[in-house]
Amino acid sequence: METLSSLADGFVVALTWQNLALALLGCFLGTIMGALPGLGPSNGVAILIPLAFTLGLGATPSLILLTSVYYGAMYGGRISSILLNIPGDEPAMMTCLDGYPMAQQGRAGEALALSGIASFVGSFFATWGLVLLAPQLVKVALLFGPAEYFALFTLAFATLGGISSTNQAKAAFAAALGLALAMIGVDTQTGVPRFTFGEVHLYDGIDFLVAIVGLFALSEVFVFLEHRGTDSDISAKPKMKIGRITPSWKLIRSCTPTMLRTTGLGFIAGVLPGAGASLGSFISYSMEKRLVDREGTFGKGDPRGVAAPEAGNNAAAGGALVPMLALGVPGSGTTAVLLAVLLSLNITPGPLLFSQNPDVVWGLIAALFIANFMLLAMNIPMVGFFTRLLLVPPRILMPIVAMISFVGIYGISGSSFDLLVMVGFGIMGWVLRKLDVPLVPVILGTLLGNEMEVNFRRAVNIANGDYLTLFASPLSITLWAIAIVGFVLPIFLGRLRQLKRMRLDDEGGVRD
Question: Which sequence ranges are marked TM in the entry (predicted)?
Fold first, then answer.
């Protein structure tokens, strides 16, 4: 009852004209960001952070705007997957498998509407999961001391790049790079400058908003510039027929069990730190294919193959907010960006967030419910409009992204040095993308590096220099064990997948 009472208070906070307008704006912009191939939720949120700060919004309105962008981008990611066979973001990749064949059969409108309904089911139940699970997780989080927090941060680093990345070494390199960036500035304990090379502007360290906008938004501009006029240019793709926009009741009924099963699975995947929406989408599709694909229709335009990954990845997006709000550890790349926003608003996510800032947390959760209904109402009738947006040429889109980035960052800091740092991060992001190094661990290292160091020093100081204190409690041992398994398991799974693929290739070769 206490939880429902807090949720009712949250609706009082969220149901103001300003917050409703921001949720609507966030949903609209998020859907556009998600629909444009390559941008995705992380980039969408990163691009709009300067806008939230420039408008001078408070903590709750800023979070409502940015989480609405997050949910909107998760909805919108499917549009280019279905129409162009180009996923708007990584979690929407599995939607291509059946969504694009449906579009080729002249059922693009049906596939888009069905994916919108599946996204709504996934997000709606995941938000209820957030309401019920996050306060319980907070009670567990109060058992955490410095040693346990250090183990928890290590767990986040070990798993965040691991599950989504194809190469563990590159994920580990990216995390180390992020931690090195976090070391820049004056050491708070000794007062000694570290890695500043005599530059006074670096004494306060690197502002993670500058790093995020550079790594995600500006690197996207460089990538688009690189691909302009080539086969990867999205404006060169042919137009697709939309067909019927509303799916039949029979089709919705046949997909309902799939949506409910994959919502549960996606939510669990989202709650695990580091798993995120990509894993939710992948295992949802794989499980449904094994369970219901008796006639081998998956991959050839089966509507259940569209509903499963969409419900899974949207449920995972809601689940990823649970560890971010309750423990201060992001469950996905986009929640890592949202964590940066919270920290820059002087709000520390974690166990005390629910008691110290209940209006922010419950107002945010209530706004998520409202945003879900807005997205459902917006997405089905406006399918035709959003599809036209895919035809916006990069020569118009990318200057807008660059302009928002530069004006926004200068508006926040008023420092031309920060603009140079942002351009540097943009080039770094472009190079890392070319080398297939994941960007999220870099951001995570920049964000959590200082907290990780502080907790490490605090734990060792309390134990009079005894490093074994990091492994002293059953909770920290459990976290270390999960971190090791989370880091090592993808290596073995990757090897197994390679061996299986080689075996299949050999069999194919023998048959030929």
Answer: 20-39, 45-71, 111-134, 140-162, 169-186, 206-225, 263-285, 324-348, 360-380, 392-412, 419-447, 467-493
Cα–Cα distance, 473 to 475 (Å, whole number) = 5
Q: Phi and psi at residue 193, in whole multiples of 5°?
A: -70, 140
Outline where 228-357 has alpha helix (H).
Answer: 249-271, 276-292, 303-327, 333-344, 353-356
Whether the per-residue pLDDT at 238 is higher than 90: the answer is no
State the residue for tokens 């989370």.
486
In terms of Cα–Cα distance, which of 57, 158, 156 is closest to 411? 57
Counting every residue written for the chain, the total comes to 512
Contact 153, 109 (CB under 8 A): no
pLDDT tens per residue, range 156-213: 777 665 544 567 788 888 888 988 998 898 887 788 888 888 888 888 888 877 887 7
Residue 271 CA to residue 287 CA, distance in Å, equals 18
Q: CA 333 to CA 36: how far, in whole Å? A: 18
H or E, element range at 67: helix 59-84
Which of residues 258 and 166 earns the better pLDDT score? 258
CB 367, CB 64: distance < 8 Å:
yes
Query: Nearest Cα to 480, choosing from 471, 492, 467?
Result: 471
Ramachandran area for residue 347 (φ above 0: left; ψ -120 to 50: alpha; else beta)? beta
Alpha-carbon dihedral angle through residues 110, 112, 118, 120, given to the nearest 10 degrees: -120
For 29-47, b/e burial (b = at least 16 CB within 10 A) is bbbbbbbbbbbbbbbbbbb
pLDDT at 423: 92
Q: Residue 431: pLDDT above 90?
A: yes
Three-state DSSP at 249 gives: helix
Q: Which two tokens stand for residue 400?
A: 């807008």
Tokens 């107002």 found at: 363
Closest CA to 117 of 305, 307, 320: 307
Which residues are bridge partners to 194 per DSSP?
185
Residues near 441 by beta carbon (within 8 Å), at least 6 away in sequence: 157, 160, 161, 171, 172, 174, 175, 177, 178
- Name residue 185's beta-bridge partners: 194
Q: What is the DSSP string of 397-431?
A: HHHHHHHHHHHHHHHHH--HHHHHHHHHHHHHHHH
**Rg of the chain (C-alpha set):** 22
In the DSSP assignment, the letter for residue 298 is T
Give the largest Cα separation in the chain, rounded: 70
Contacts of the segment 250-257: beta carbons below 8 A, 24+ positions apart: 251/110, 251/114, 251/303, 252/114, 252/117, 254/303, 254/304, 255/114, 255/118, 255/303, 255/304, 255/307
